[in-house]
Amino acid sequence: MTELLYEDIAARLVTLIEQGTFAPGARLPGLRKLSRQFSVSVGTVVSACALLEAQGVLIAQPRSGHYVADRLSEEPARPEVGTPADGPALIQGQERVLALVQAHNDPALLPFGAAVPDASFLPVAALARSAAPSAIGSPTTTSRPARRSCGCRSRGAWPRPAASSARTRSSSPAAVRRRWC
To answer: What's the per-residue H, E or C state across 24-47?
Structure first.
């Protein structure tokens, strides 16, 4: 038995997979069923499945469950280390690159890789009309004037200094409206 309970559950699941109880590609029972089967909490089974998923033994499918990986992950074989060439090597293929550069400069050929239509084909007026409502109120818009205010902010009267409570009670509604416009 390992130190942590979820590692023990993960080892027991690997044993079941190796024994053929769960074939590669098969769906594991639900987390609650596994927790009842192993007499542990659902969180412990979740941790065990997460560990096996990190090891490549299980594959988690959202809203579907956990599946046994088609083949158990093994450390991939290391590539063989090659030996460097004894001297400089001839690089081939520069003729193709030169032909591409020359074809790019040929006005008789149409470069499909960078096809951009001429500006006269673009619906500039329709785009400007459709973009105008979203640009209203932006600082760069000059087509419509800004909404007019009463002018108290431009005169430096906003916000007004706090008045005494007696003076505020005797203020007329027009004065209050001017104060808070």
So the answer is: CCCECCCHHHHHHHHCCCHHHHHH
